[in-house]
Design a protein that fits this description.
Length: 80
């Protein structure tokens, strides 16, 4: 389920070429604070995926409500 969630989130990722060909910047709309840079688009994409994975783990451990991506959501149930 988490892999599918990551895959859907990565599908909405947005990338831009930095000035003077200094690499790429990527972000995932709806995933506040998830961004990455890389010297190539693929390096940026890989870094963005790693940041997203960490963001998910922290969100789950903190009990945060995570956004839905492509109809996939991760429900976090509070511990009683």
């Amino acid at each position: 389920m988490i892999q599918e969630y990551i895959q859907k989130a990565m599908q909405v990722a947005e990338y831009e070429l930095l000035e003077d060909d200094e690499g790429f910047y990527g972000t995932i709309p709806g995933a506040t604070g998830v961004w990455a840079t890389g010297s190539t688009l693929e390096a940026c994409r890989q870094e963005l995926m790693e940041v997203l994975e960490e963001w998910i783990l922290i969100g789950i451990s903190q009990g945060h409500q995570l956004p839905e991506f492509g109809g996939i959501s991760l429900k976090v149930e509070p511990i009683a």
